[in-house]
Amino acid sequence: MTERAPMGMAKTLWHTQRVKGLVRERLGQGAACIVSVRETICTDPSCPGPATLVRITDLSFREKLLTIHKPVSKVGYPDIAEVI
């Protein structure tokens, strides 16, 4: 393992938390939902690289699964607004 690996993981974690905040801001629900964000390999042939999966679970356990065809570090508020 190189010394860069922890820094890369820290950046990914930071962006994951940032995207969770953007989702909560868009929903306007704060802690009234569970938001899970992860970066994954995109299986869509038109997707150029990693995708970001966002899972939103409300207090009634209803789930929404959203896919943004960008790496988590490139996801912004307009991307969140588009899929929600």
In brief, what are we looking at here?
It contains two helices and three strands, in the order H-E-E-E-H. The protein has helices at residues 4-27, 77-83; strands at 33-40, 51-58, 63-68. The mean pLDDT is 87.
What is the domain total for the residues? 1
Report how far apart the termini are. 38 Å
Q: CATH topology, anyone?
A: Double Stranded RNA Binding Domain
Beta-strand fraction estimate: 25-35%
Query: Helical percent range?
Result: 25-40%
* Unreliable residue runs: none
Overall morphology: globular
CATH architecture: 2-Layer Sandwich
Individual helix count = 2
Strand order of the largest sheet: 1-2-3
What does this structure look like?
With 84 residues, the protein is an alpha+beta fold. The chain has one domain (4-83): Double Stranded RNA Binding Domain (2-Layer Sandwich). It has 2 helices and 3 strands; from the N terminus they run H-E-E-E-H. The chain has helices at 4-27, 77-83, and strands spanning 33-40, 51-58, 63-68. A 3-stranded antiparallel beta sheet has the order 1-2-3, with helices on one face. The longest helix is centred in the first third of the chain and has 24 residues, at 4-27.
